[in-house]
Amino acid sequence: MKLKLTTYVSAIVFSSVFVGCTETSETKLPIIGERATEERVVDGRTVVDTIYHQIPPFAFLNQDSVEITDRDFDDKVYVANFFFTHCPSICPTMQRNLLKVYEKYKDDERIAFLSHSIDFKYDSPSVLKSYAEKLGVTNDQWQFVTGEKKKIYGIADKYLVYTKEDQDAPGGYDHQSYLVLIDPHKRIRGAYDGTNDEQVAQLFDDLKTLLKEQ
Amino acid sequence: MLIFSCQPNVSIETAQYAINGQKLYVTHCQSCHGSKGEGLGMLYPPLTDTTYLKENRGMLPRIIKSGMNGLIKINGKDYEGNMPGNPELTNVDIAYILTYITTTFGNSTDTYTQEEVKNNLVNYR
């Protein structure tokens, strides 16, 4: 009981400090995902670091059959999503909206885009190449990648996006239409439903906020 | 109301068909073809080619019902891909959708009737 109360009080104190901060400083995006703490000793004092959820290293094949890794996104803000080329339901709307973001920031090297195909059977690099060209993507700022099922579905979990092979879903795959905003430290800073105009507008705003942070 | 103000020449029946058609359009067509019938890049063609809609009026129900493969020229551009069919749609559903498309994106002022859908599904196989 005592512990609970302490937690409660400290939560109030903490939140009031937090409110105090947001009033005086610029708005910052939250850091999303589970976190852990790590203690280390600096100059004889113990300090506690927060370890945030990060996108782990990855390697996939892109639309030009070139290996794309997490290193290609070092020091960049990027937007990631999950789709497949013959998806008849949510993907066209999601990609139409992401295309608007791409067009706004085209040739801005601070920003990149990464679409993962969850149809590892059909979406070969050449299929992805044709899709990217027809969508209107003309530079390598937006990458379309494929990989082994285990790797693609595994990384989707790390982006906190639900993906599943499902015969009953339209096109054979069930997935969420989140556009996930990642900062240069590979931390998730926002997730926006790519089929919802209001949330896409929020992505435009948050992207600006995140770029100011850099 | 909106339909009346945009298209003063359409009958109440046509306007009703178009309103019902819009709801079905959102569910079945909009993701690819867009809320304004604008399509998406070279992936999915726009539905705003008034000449195409007029000249191929008879074929439209079959395209919605059974889908489409291969090359199609829209607004002077070649589109190639597969459109999935919508076999679950009834004749009246297709009549609603086509009335919406042909009067909103095209320049038709007529209802695409259920009778027209039924006959054209037989004529174009």
Q: Average the pLDDT over all residues of chain A and give the rounded result.
A: 89
Query: At the fourth CATH level, what is the homologous superfamily of chain A?
Result: Glutaredoxin
Strand content of chain B: 5-15%
Question: H/E series of chain B, N to C?
Answer: HHHHHEEHH
Shape of chain B: globular
Account of the protein in words:
Chain A: Disulfide bonds join 87-91. Chain A has a single domain (59-213), classed as 3-Layer(aba) Sandwich (Glutaredoxin). Helices cover 35% and strands 26% of the residues of chain A. Chain A is built from five helices and eleven strands; from the N terminus they run H-E-E-E-E-E-H-E-H-E-H-E-E-E-E-H. Chain A has helices at 2-24, 91-104, 125-135, 149-158, 197-213, and strands at residues 36-42, 45-51, 59-61, 67-69, 77-83, 111-117, 142-145, 163-165, 173-175, 178-182, 188-193. Chain A has a five-stranded mixed sheet. Chain A is globular, with a radius of gyration of 20 Å. The model of chain A is unreliable at 1-24 (pLDDT under 50). The N and C termini of chain B lie far apart (37 Å). With 125 residues, chain B is mainly alpha-helical. Chain B contains seven helices and two strands; from the N terminus they run αααααββαα. Chain B has a two-stranded antiparallel sheet. Helices cover 50% and strands 6% of the residues of chain B. Chain B has a single domain (9-123), classed as Cytochrome c-like domain (Cytochrome Bc1 Complex, Chain D, domain 2), CATH 1.10.760.
